[in-house]
Amino acid sequence: MYLVKDLVEGRIVYYWVDEDGSTRSPLVATFALAEDWWKQFTFDRYEGPERRASVVDRRSNTEKRLRMDQSNRFASTNVQGRRETDRPVKVTFDLVQKRIKEMTGS
Questions:
Q1: Residues whose CB is less than 8 angstroms from the CB of residue 81 and which lie 6 or more positions away in sequence, other chains included
Q2: How confident is the model over 44-98, as pLDDT tens digits?
Q3: What pLDDT was estimated at residue 55?
Q4: Is 94 helix (H, G, I), strand (E, B) or coil?
Q5: Can you tell me whether residue 56 is helix, strand or coil?
Q6: How far is CA 42 from the centre of its chain?
Q7: Burial state string for 43-76 with b = 16 or more CB within 10 A and e = fewer than 16
């Protein structure tokens, strides 16, 4: 899935789309809400035995994770984590500038 940042009715919104462009999530107002929706969606889809009690990864604080990695010579070789939901989410398609140009006629 891909994260889209868009301008809808004068507001910036985020939502997730499939490979075919179909919207999979509701429109949400913040990046954090979009990330939370995706993590919950991914966890809900998983059918195997779940060992984690929380969908929030303890390594989600990037600064703390890097600091711990640099200070510990026995640190993990995979500081981002093993799961897809452990890796930082990024906006794939940012449509805001395009929408602003469409609105202003530039």
A1: 57, 59, 87
A2: 887 777 666 655 555 556 666 667 667 766 555 555 555 666 678 999 999 999 9
A3: 53
A4: strand
A5: coil
A6: 11
A7: eeeeeeeeeeeeeebebeeeeebeeeeeeeeeee
The CA angle 72-76-79, to the nearest 5 degrees, is: 105
Q: Which residues contact 27 (CB under 8 A, 6 or more apart)?
A: 6, 8, 13, 14, 15
The residue among 37, 12, 10 whose CA lies nearest residue 26 is 37
* Domain encompassing residue 91: 2-104
pLDDT at 72: 66
Q: How far apart are CA 92 and CA 4, in angstroms?
A: 6
Domain count, the chain: 1
List, in order, residues 6 or more apart from 92 with CB less than 8 Å away: 2, 3, 4
Q: Tell the residue number behind the tokens 């995979």, with chain if given.
A: 78
Tokens, residue 48: 């195997």
